[in-house]
Amino acid sequence: TAIPARIQVFHGDALVHQLFALPGPGEFELPPGDYEIVVSRGYEYERVATPVTIVADQTAPLDVTLVHSMDTAGYLSFDGHVHAGPSGDSTVPLAERIRSAAADGLEIIGHTDHEIIVDPEPSRADSGVQDWVASIPGEELTATSPEHHSVWDMPPAPTPPRGRPIVWYQNGVAE
Predict the structure, then answer these.
(1) Cα angle, residue 105 at apex, residues 126 and 133 outer, rounded to 5°
(2) Phi and psi at residue 27, in whole multiples of 5°?
(3) Pick from 78, 87, 131, 168: most CB atoms within 10 A?
(4) Cα torsion angle, 117, 85, 40, 64, sign
(5) Cα(18)–Cα(131) distance, rounded to whole angstroms?
(6) For residues 9 and 39, what is the distance between their CA atoms, to the nearest angstrom?
(7) What percent of the chain has pLDDT over 90?
C-alpha cells in the first residue's frame, strides 16, 4: 500500500532537501552528486537509508518499502499541540503542516494556533492526505499567567476575522 512518508536528502552530514511525500510515485530534482536518501514514517515503521548518485540529465529511481514493525491496532497517534501559518509563531502553510503530520504517522492533529481558530478542512482537502489524518480545530490561549492553554473542538465562526477565538484578555483563570 502506498503511504505518506518523510523523505530527507543528505549531502555528507548536511540535510539539503526534505519533503513530505504523498502516497504513490513522485519526482523531485537534485543537482548531480552523491546523496543519502532517508525515508521514514513515524515510529511504527523502520526507516530506510540508501545512497543515491545523481548524474546530470539522468533519472535515478528510488523504490522504497517501509516495514511496519510496531503493531498499533486499537491506538491512535495524536498530537494536540500543532501550529501552522495562521499562528504568529509558524510560517508553515496549513496544508503542508497536515502533510507533515501524515508523513510522520500522525492520525489526528489538534490545531492550536495562537489566538485564531481556523477551519482546517479546506487545507486538509488541499493536502492530498485527508484520508490519512483527521483535524480537530482549536486554539492556544497565550496568557502570561498561568502560561498557555490549549482548547480543542472549537469550530470557527464564519464572520469574525480570527474565527471566534476565546477572548481571554483581562480575565482571571476561572473565566
Answers:
(1) 35
(2) -140, 150
(3) 87
(4) positive
(5) 22
(6) 9
(7) 63
Would you state the pLDDT for residue 173? 67
List pLDDT tens digits, range 131-160: 999 999 998 887 666 677 788 888 887 777
Query: Grid coordinates in use for 39?
Result: 525515508
175 CB-near residues (< 8 Å, 6+ apart): 168
Distance (Å, whole) CA 71 – CA 44? 7
- Reading the block at residue 130, the C-alpha cell is 485527508
pLDDT in tens, 94-122: 999 999 999 999 999 999 888 888 889 99
Measured at the CA of 42, the angle between CA 40 and CA 47, to 5 degrees, comes to 30
Q: Which of 9, 6, 4 is nearest to 37 (CA)?
A: 9
DSSP three-state, residue 75: coil
Residues 6+ apart with CB under 8 A from 9: 15, 16, 17, 18, 30, 35, 36, 37, 38
**Angstrom distance (rounded) from CA 72 to CA 76:** 7
- Give the count of beta carbons closer than 10 Å to the beta carbon of residue 95: 20
